[in-house]
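Thread: "does anyone have the structure for this chain?"

Original post by V.I.:
We have the sequence but no experimental structure in hand. Need at least a predicted one for the grant figures.
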Amino acid sequence: MLLMPLFFSSCEEAKELTGAMEFTIGDKSYSFPVATFIKQGDKTIITSTELTSTATILFNGQTTKKYSLGIGANLEEVLLNLNQLDNAENVFIYFPTGGINDSQISLFGSLEITEYTDKKVVGTFTGYCVTKEIALGGVEDLITAENKAFVGTFTAIAVN
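Reply from O.Q.:
Generated one for you, tokens below.
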């Protein structure tokens, strides 16, 4: 019992030094022990990698606020804007190493940045995604049937 507070304290301290990202896509959960970010012009790029996969959040901004993810506010708008998928300003992408056909890209959702400093970005994200292969195939029935909910949190540390 006495070691319990020390364990949780150590985890929180590690998160402050290395960042972290946790998310769920459909019924699968992922936990990444390191998350970093860089600023590129007006954009922020958050990346988290572990041995078998990478997760990236790209958004056009550098402030605390709620951002839209993907290419529409709902599935109907997404289906009308599929040709803009590669140009989405704000996007969540999950890429399993060696599984390009299994990579997921956000169709619609939201990203809430709750803290943004030169050293750290903290936020939550939620929405719906589908494999990029299915999205670019453009078959509405398949996109409608195959999209999956995602939800996650992150603390990203600046790359210096």
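V.I.: this helps a lot. The two ends are 38 Å apart (CA to CA).
O.Q.: and The chain has four helices and ten strands.
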